[in-house]
Specification:
Elements lengths: L14 E10 L2 H16 L4 E2 L2 E9 L7 E8 L6 E12 L4 E12 L2 H24 L2 H14 L5
Antiparallel strand pairs: 1-6, 2-3, 3-4, 4-5, 5-6
Length: 155
């Protein structure tokens, strides 16, 4: 029995892609989750022990689909390890739901530091997704309505 979470994929040549443990049926809830993540990465999650979020952008264009993009610096910061993180939802017709994926591209820095820091970032994201699942319906509705008000197009 393993007590520590392990990613389902491994990084390859400065790119790490993996599915996230979440399925959502409604596009409105997808947008609410993206707004929830945006709030986190602009607030409490802007700086954690192993990473710092330098930029946050969300987008719901028809071409790209619902997503949040982050520019992230990884500790130790003097090593100048940076990555571009893309968290996005894709409609899976056979399952009639949205599936979430994360794509992390190394921008600069040493590979071993990048892999360790990315693992910590993904684990932190996974915890936020678990938190979303445990929010009350009232709290989730607050984010869903907030996403409708914000319009969520390229902000």
């Amino acid at each position: 029995m393993e007590r520590k979470w392990k990613p389902s994929t491994k990084p390859k040549s400065g790119l790490w892609e993996m599915p996230l443990p979440l399925r959502i049926n409604q596009i409105e809830e997808v947008k609410g989750l993206i707004l929830f993540l945006k709030e986190y990465y602009l607030g409490t999650g802007i700086e954690r022990p192993s990473f710092r979020v330098d930029d946050v952008k969300i987008n719901f264009s028809e071409l790209e689909g619902p997503r949040i993009r982050l520019m992230v610096s990884l500790a130790p910061y003097e090593a100048n390890v940076k990555e571009l993180v893309d968290i996005f939802a894709q409609w899976i017709e056979t399952e009639k739901s949205y599936s979430f994926l994360i794509s992390i591209q190394k921008i600069s820095g040493e590979e071993s530091i990048w892999v360790k820091g990315s693992y910590d970032f993904i684990d932190d994201l996974r915890r936020q997704i678990l938190l979303w699942r445990f929010l009350s319906l009232k709290e989730r509705t607050k984010y869903i309505n907030g996403a409708k008000k914000e319009g969520l197009s390229g902000k």
